[in-house]
Amino acid sequence: MVENMSLNIKNERVHALAREAARRMGRSQTSVIEEALARLLAELDEREAGGGPDRTRRVGAILEDIDARLTDADRAALGADDLYDESGMPA
């Protein structure tokens, strides 16, 4: 059984954001708020779970992109010997 519920938001910025999102998406304010909250909760679930496979995939894609952009000169500059001075302190 579905009960008729109401939500009274007394914040003009929130109203403006909901109106703009609804206008841009061609949907109702209720539907864009529902989607936004569902996305927020999914993001929170992912954070609480440590990111999960999706985070691992995104991080892997970032690392692959960085690797593809590095030149041989960049790789040489990243050598561990250049990170520390002769006394073992960070250079």
Written as H for each helix and E for each strand, in order along the chain, the element string is HHHH
Oligomeric grouping of the chains:
single chain
Helix content: 55-70%
Low-confidence stretches: none
Tell me about this structure:
With 91 residues, the protein is an all-alpha fold. It folds into two domains: 7-50; 52-91, no CATH class. The protein has helices at 12-25, 29-48, 52-69, 72-77. Helix 1 (12-25) crosses helix 2. It starts with 11 loop residues before the first helix and ends in a 14-residue tail after the last helix. The mean pLDDT is 87.
Give structural attributes.
single chain, 91 residues, mainly alpha
Map the helices and strands.
Elements lengths: L11 H14 L3 H20 L3 H18 L2 H6 L14
Give a brief outline of the structure.
By secondary structure, this protein is mainly alpha-helical. The protein has four helices and no strands. It folds into two domains: 44 residues; 40 residues, no CATH class.
